[in-house]
Amino acid sequence: MSLFHEFRELLTPRLAATIESNREFVDPNNLEAVLKKDAIYNAFGLTAFEMFDIINFDDWFNTTLRQELMESHGHSRVLKRRVAWLIGQWLTVRLNPEYRPELYNILIGLLNPEQDMAVRLAATSTLRCAIDDFDFSSEHFIEYLEPMAFSLYKLLVSVRECDTKLNVLHVMSFMVERLGPMVEPYFDSLLQYLPKLWTDSDDHHMLRCAIISTLTQIVRAIRTKSAELTPFLVPIIRYSVDIKEKAYIYLQEDGLELLLSYIESCATYNDDMLSLINYLLPLLDYSTEHLKTGLMILEAYVLIAPDRVITEYGTQLFSLTTSLMNDLKDEGIVCILSLYETIIKVNLPQTIELMMAVLGQNLKCLCSGEIGLAVNSCRLSLISRVILNDPSIFIKVVEHLCMTENGNLMNFDNVLNRIIEVWLERMNQIVQNDRRKLLGLALASLLTCQKKPILELFKEIITVCVETLNDIMRKTDDGLYADSMLMTDDCSNVSSRANSECEYQYETEHNERQRCLSLKDPVHCIPFHKYLQSQLLALQNQIGEQQFQGVLISKVDSDILEQLYLYM
């Protein structure tokens, strides 16, 4: 190939002439002629990107190549294998889409158990090229799914080498991935082969990884029907993530992905699904290698079965995650804090006691001078959600912080003042509008808690709230200002996972649960300008108009007040 690229102008016409001069059908019993044509076709395929504008491959496909694939005598299998490979090289370069149905029929024929094994394997590789092509159409391929899956399964049970089985299974998995939800009516046909394959692959861990990966693609594709597979899926997942099983070392990553997809796809939980938490938590405690996926699974559990998860596993969950935070880098801490934030969003009464210790630890870290921006942002978000749910909990935690390790009491006002000062400083470093609004809502909520440090920092609090309003308020057609962070029922779903490598963006039940939670989120359902206005009025009623105007409002810069009144 290096020679061809270097001397393209010299070699291209000669190769084209050689290819055209050997277009005639050769005697399959003449091994020398067959091998010569095999070599020519090899060059024909390797130079596809160089020859696409010289050779009319569509014409070759319809005449010579189809004829050679129909031959079944002598050494025809040599050319069949080469032609199958040749088509795979050219179809991504130049093959008219109208010939795709004929190509799929040809591949089904080449995958037939009566064909030579080398021919079947070459056809498998060409099938992979066909479904990975830019011009691939799911609608045109779907009718060939069942015979293709059947042929691939027959090939799987025929081959002996594990690597070969892996390659075939990866093609099956990729086929399901590309077709996406369209495979739903056919999932029974796809699944009937996998249980036996799983049983027969007891000693082949890598093959089992491929089986789990294929199951993951099927679960994502059939969505809510995944619940019907619970008796099959749960034992496989349990086996994959149970640290008492030797195979978990090889299977845990794919097993966790399957578990995550299974939970995300189901509309409701079941006891078997919840029982897998008993294996997930020890796995995360034993190793943090797949911590991010594990925490995403826990978040999915919290959304699908909040009461059961928090009641039955809450203590164990919080104990594990708080201990893990001591040894994690910022990325891992952010993932854990995001899980805590989801738990608070669900807003169950039984989480209050569990969150007290977590909140205190986060306040300590926040005030200790921690410099990680992402971590600080998540800590402040967590604290803000607690305040919006119940400000009294925040006050209780601050009071508890005043008790030092030696039993001496620190001044409450000094501690609260330090927290708010750090809060205001960190808030200016945050650029995400949703986070800034959340923090602003919490600060506005604290205005009426009647604590001295809050009133002393009134000017700074109002300033940062107005700056946040400047970021999120948008002028409407009628000339009024509206909060751009508000969501309605027809807003697009919020998804934590993007299948960027897939043709389909899978719409799961988990997406819907996230969307419903977002619709209840104060960030998306409370107009910040109106909430701030109501808190200022409440504060004025608490301390009296004279003190409110003379002591508090008078300290705020006139420019800030002008902007504030604009939104009010």
From TrEMBL:
GO terms for cellular component: cytosol; nuclear envelope. Pfam families: TPR_IPO11. Residues 209-564 form the Importin-7/11-like TPR repeats domain. GO terms for biological process: protein import into nucleus. InterPro entries: ARM-like, ARM-type_fold, TPR_IPO7/11-like. This is Importin-11. The lineage of its organism: Eukaryota, Metazoa, Ecdysozoa, Arthropoda, Hexapoda.
